[in-house]
Design brief:
- Helices cover 20% and strands 31% of the residues.
- It is of the alpha+beta class.
- The longest helix is centred in the last third of the chain and has 14 residues.
- It is globular.
- The termini are far apart.
Amino acid sequence: MARHTKDHVTRTHHGEPFLFSSYTDRGCVGVATPVHGTVAVLDSKTPDGPILEFDRGKWTHFVEFTKQQAP
């Protein structure tokens, strides 16, 4: 079960904490990088909701693609 702290949700995935942007107040996604080679993502608005897992290579491609799309 997730806990809410003053600023964000406290939850781990395979022992790794989810990290959240310092630029938002709970309206973002959290990302954890467990050692088994995936990137886990959760919606901070539904902290007990599902966790999506991505292959690290696919996640890196997604992040690089979104950087290129930014103004």
